[in-house]
Write a structure and sequence with these properties.
The protein is α/β, with parallel strands linked by helices and about 600 residues long. A hairpin with a 7-residue loop joins strand 9 and strand 10 (about 150).
């Protein structure tokens, strides 16, 4: 089971928003982008509230600020979840075995709404909290002639099934507002009265690490019991071997990742020791050994502490054996207090942890935006913010809205480049000292994703070209003038269709000779490529097969569908998934990339 959609209504400053996690091209990483106070954290808190309840005493904190004086109504969070084949099989079998109820049609998804009800800003007496299922489960008993909804047939059976699904199949939602808590000097292996929550969390993480080594290992039996019997040689040898395995796993998953992302300096490795303090019991200590010295995790740099905590709570936590379905992680402003280089490197780590889970994270940093994930990016805006002057805010008149990025782009077609809405949402203005890379501008986002996919996945990054998508072939005049003023190397590569040729001529006529050796069409790359669009570089059979990677029911007889083709290319790029292109197609793109590099290098 996995989450595929959230609908949030009346939660604090949210009138109503929908986050759809199924849009194509599909991604497992979703980004909430907006200024501080735009409502990103409120959205994450609302999603977290779906599985993590709130007490009646604190329920007033959910009421919209603008209505706190007198709110009557319902605050709700609705989750839609997709059932996989195993889920459907269990539900059908469970109802047949226990209730002799036979489902007629399988349910592909279920909807569950958690609501909080108020009257005059006070929780409604007796019914302040409800949980409703919008699911049919239509079927019948062997004796019945007509089908009925399970709840109509026998409410007791329906309540039993709902409770069973909630306990057995409902995926975890894990909200991490901040990873910068203190790493415990000691992780105690037995629960004690009054212990800090950190101990419970890290004891669970320790079990996750054991699960990643072998499913049958447990903290109680394979660590604690062996420590208590360490005088026995067999127990001691087994314990030492397991501690070495844990250290090896942490070295490979965390320290190796740290070195790959941030560059290796002096070799670091995890060192694990155990002892018994007599009062609280047995514990283990994790330290970082560097050279002849050993350091506590909390003695390391801010960046290292953040990264260590982040990976230990995601890379291991995501595969907890007892967790049902597809875990959903919520990260609020990850790495916001780290250097921009560290933020950019973090994107690599995020990409590596979502193979079997989903991740929603918020950010107001353009360094934490990955073009790969724009299909799952939402721009968050709050009417309380004066976007012309963010210092002037009406804190009580919150109205939080979300726009799926591609819909935002469609609503504002006059933007001068494809990423500008993101930069506008972040109120980003480049520094005069900022390094601007040599750039190859593509005609639009579709050509951008095609070139990026071929260069990075098919050619394995052998061509280091910085591509950038515009909002269309006619939207580059201001961008070209800006890059000329910056004295930066750039070229534009457009289709050789009539639109591309007209745009090339117009830029040269309007801007002048400075642009002549910077704007090209595909016909300039190869004189035989007349009236050619980027997708025409592929063979007809390749285009159909590429479409079929995302749209399995698309047949050859359906012909070429441009929108589906571009979606499929973007999906292949997101998944870093190779596709077998023929030799001729590869040679065409090789020629284009060599042409781009030659023209950029020739610029003074």
């Amino acid at each position: 089971m996995k989450y595929i959609k959230f609908t949030i209504e009346n939660y604090r400053g949210i009138p109503k928003i929908v986050l759809d996690l199924t849009k194509k091209p599909a991604t497992n990483i979703f980004t909430l982008v907006g200024l501080n106070e735009s409502g990103k954290t409120t959205i994450l808190e609302a999603i977290n509230r779906f599985t993590n309840d709130i007490s009646k005493e604190n329920s007033h904190t959910l009421i919209p600020k603008s209505r706190q004086y007198d709110f009557t109504g319902k605050i709700s969070i609705t989750a839609e979840l997709e059932l996989d084949l195993e889920d459907e099989k269990f539900i059908k079998s469970y109802l047949q075995r226990k209730w002799k109820f036979f489902i007629a049609d399988n349910e592909e998804s279920i909807k569950i709404t958690r609501s909080y009800n108020f009257e005059s800003s006070v929780p409604l007496e007796g019914e302040w909290k409800t949980k409703n299922w919008v699911t049919s489960f239509i079927g019948k008993t062997k004796q019945a002639k007509k089908t009925k909804r399970l709840a109509e047939w026998k409410n007791e059976a329906w309540q039993d099934l709902a409770n069973t699904i909630s306990k057995r199949f409902l995926p975890k939602i894990l909200y991490y507002p901040n990873f910068l808590f203190e790493f415990p000097e000691r992780i105690y292996l037995e629960k004690t009265d009054g212990e800090e929550r950190t101990q419970t969390e890290y004891r669970g993480i320790l079990q996750d690490i054991l699960d990643s080594i072998e499913d049958s290992l447990t903290v109680e039996k394979h660590l604690l019991e062996r420590m208590k019997n360490k005088e026995d040689k067999a127990h001691k040898n087994a314990l030492d071997s397991l501690l070495n395995k844990i250290a090896e796993k942490l070295n490979n998953v965390i320290l190796k990742e740290w070195d790959e992302i941030f560059g290796s300096g002096q070799k670091k490795e995890v060192e694990i020791k155990f002892d018994n303090d007599g009062d609280t019991g047995y514990f283990i200590e994790l330290k970082i050994k560097q050279g002849s010295d050993s350091y506590s995790i909390n003695d390391r740099s801010l960046g290292f502490r953040w990264f260590f905590s982040f990976l230990i709570f995601t890379a291991f936590r995501r595969s907890r054996a007892s967790d049902p379905g597809e875990t959903l992680f919520l990260l609020d402003e990850p790495a916001s207090n780290l250097h921009q280089r560290s933020q950019q490197k973090l994107l690599k780590a995020l990409d590596g942890i979502v193979s079997d889970c989903k991740l929603i994270y918020s950010t107001h940093s353009h360094h934490l935006i990955n073009p790969k994930w724009l299909a799952g990016t939402y721009i968050v805006r709050n009417e309380a913010i004066n976007y012309g002057n963010p210092e002037e805010s009406k804190t009580t008149e919150t109205k939080i809205e979300t726009f799926l990025y591609k819909n935002f782009v469609a609503e504002y077609p006059d933007e001068i480049d494809h990423f500008k809405p993101i930069l506008d949402a972040l109120d980003y203005v480049p520094s005069k000292l900022e390094v601007v890379p040599s750039t190859a501008f593509t005609e639009g986002e579709n050509d951008y994703y095609t070139f990026k996919y071929i260069a990075e996945v098919i050619f394995d990054g052998n061509h280091e070209i910085h591509f950038y998508p515009g909002a269309g072939v006619d939207k580059y005049a201001d961008v070209f003038r800006l890059y000329l003023a910056w004295d930066r190397k750039f070229i534009g590569v457009f289709d050789s269709d009539p639109g591309g040729k007209r745009a090339k001529k117009r830029y040269i006529d309007e801007i002048g000779p400075d642009i002549e050796d910077r704007v090209f069409t595909l016909e300039d790359v190869n004189s035989k490529w007349k009236n050619l669009n980027t997708e025409d570089l592929f063979s007809e059979s390749e285009k159909i097969k590429i479409i079929q990677t995302s749209f399995e029911d698309h047949q050859k007889t359906n012909g070429f569908h441009k929108s589906k083709f571009n979606t499929a290319i973007q999906q292949l790029y997101i998944n870093n998934e190779p596709f077998e292109l023929n030799k001729t197609t590869k040679q065409k793109f090789e020629k284009i990339f060599e042409f781009i590099a030659e023209k950029i290098n020739a610029l003074k």
